[in-house]
Write a structure and sequence with these properties.
466 residues; alpha/beta; 11-stranded mixed β-sheet; 15 helices; 14% strand; binds glutamine
């Protein structure tokens, strides 16, 4: 069975017709996943036994991996943190339910920076996933396990991932996979372990644009359990892939090329020229508040994170220690033991930014900047269908390079992904070429709920079929 040559579309048709035997397939998937785990460490939990799909739905027989901050009934869910070690949710997130109800099966929970705090998946309590294209390098973060596994698995598969400030786009760019972050509120967050509620979005990492369009059609839509869920009717996103891009207007934000590696800039301009060859037109545009986006993002993200993490006290779930001393002593012992260094840094920063006396200067100001950033995008989308830019300013760095970065230098790596995440607009990273043999991602951003348009442009690349 030459599975690596099969697209998800072809696979689903063949398994439905009985041409591929589900038992043979799941046996192959398990064996292969175990050997991938040994080599690259993409999983925090790899299931021992596959739960066979009950329904012959639209995704019947398709293996799904799930980022470890998305709750899965009966499967340990840690959000990459020691403080949630052993937590086995009694329920599944809405998006997991949707996918499983269509006949997909869960393979495991993928590695991530603790609670999503990171860009390189090195802030992981359960081992660092490695980039399958060069194991000395990061596969991006925080959805690193998802991108690692998607890049290397030799069978059809879809990864459920999550982004707060770039955690889908970055790992997709670093591993040459496709990553979609939908409009904020399009996919229910019910059952997601929060990092920063006003920014978190569940999305997808896959090998092809088709796989994204198909899976998004299943996980998108209103959910009464999530009060921020948008009231959008069910939608078939695969229909956009049949359209060409003739006449589409592409904006190229000039601020997104400042400080970017020159070789990456070249790859991105080649990609934009290719879009022109396919019938689109392009023009430069300015998003003047881009330079404030990193500061505003980190103030908002850590402020929200620090309140979200207050509930981890070793009482209700996850890590428990021997009950000693008074509550404060027990609480401090659990949190000192359970949180990693980056989580502690963000709790301190976020608590500081929200303190009386500082709140107006930091948090409220950051919210105002966020509004300005949204206005920049809204103005641009009056003129353009899609904005195109590099996803990341560098290719996947080596672990020894990452070690030398200060926390601020680390945060600066998110300079191109935080603004669209603050604005809550949809974005997709697609492989556009290589620099020093490592993949470069083209970032396509659309107006709110214009997933169809970015999928249409992304698909025009006709990237790798497998
Ligand atoms: N690197 C960013 C951060 O650390 C984004 C992470 C994410 O999207 N979860 O906040």
């Amino acid at each position: 069975m030459k599975l690596e040559k099969l697209s998800v579309k072809e696979f689903l048709a063949r398994i439905k017709s009985g041409d591929i035997d589900l038992d043979d397939f799941t046996a192959h998937v398990m064996e292969n996943s175990k050997s991938i785990q040994k080599k690259y460490n993409p999983f925090i939990t790899l299931v021992d036994k596959i739960q066979k799909p009950k329904k012959k739905g639209k995704l019947y027989g398709l293996p799904i991996s799930i980022k470890d901050n998305i709750c899965t009934k009966g499967i340990q869910t840690t959000a990459g943190s020691r403080i949630l070690e052993g937590y086995t949710p009694p329920f599944s997130a809405s998006c997991v339910e949707n996918i499983v109800n269509e006949g997909a099966f869960i393979l495991g929970k993928t590695a991530m920076d603790e609670f999503g705090f990171g860009t390189f998946s090195v802030n992981c309590a359960y081992g660092i996933p490695k980039n399958p294209l060069d194991t000395e390098r990061s596969c991006g973060g925080s959805s690193g396990g998802a991108s690692c596994f998607t890049a290397v698995a030799d069978f059809p598969h879809v990864a459920l991932a999550e982004s707060t400030g770039g955690s889908i786009s970055c790992p997709a760019a670093f591993t040459g996979t496709v990553g979609l972050t939908p409009t904020y509120g399009l996919v229910s967050r019910w059952g997601l372990i929060d990092y920063a509620n006003s920014l978190d979005k569940i999305g997808l990492i896959t090998k092809s644009v088709y796989d994204i369009a198909l899976s998004l059609s299943i996980i998108a839509g209103n959910d009464s359990k999530d009060s921020t869920s948008l009231n959008v009717p069910a939608h078939d996103y695969t229909k956009y892939l049949k359209k060409d891009i003739k006449g589409m207007k592409i904006g190229v934000p000039k601020e997104y090329f400042e400080g970017v590696d020159g070789k990456i800039t070249k790859v991105i301009w080649n990609a934009i020229k290719k879009l022109e060859d396919l019938g689109a037109t392009y023009k430069e545009v300015s998003l003047p508040h881009t330079k404030y986006s990193l500061s505003a993002y980190y103030i908002i993200a850590v402020s929200e994170a620090s309140t979200n993490l207050a509930k981890y006290a070793g009482m209700r779930y996850g890590l428990h220690l021997e009950l000693k001393g008074n509550f404060d002593e027990y609480f401090s012992a659990v949190r000192s033991n359970g949180f990693g260094e980056e989580a502690k840094r963000r709790i301190i920063l976020g608590t500081f930014a929200r303190m009386a006396g500082y709140r107006d200067a930091y948090y409220l100001k950051a919210l105002k900047v966020r509004t300005k950033i949204i206005e920049d995008f809204k103005k641009a989308f009056k003129q353009f269908d899609v904005l195109a830019a590099p996803t990341m300013p560098v290719v996947a760095p080596r672990f020894d390079e990452i070690e030398k970065l200060s926390p601020i230098e680390n945060y600066m790596m998110d300079v191109l992904t935080v603004a669209p995440n603050l604005a809550g607009i949809p974005m997709i990273s697609v492989p556009a070429g290589k620099v020093n043999n490592m993949p470069v991602g083209l970032h396509l951003m659309g107006d709110h709920l214009q997933e169809g348009k970015i999928l249409q442009v992304a698909n025009s690349f006709k990237i790798q079929k497998y």
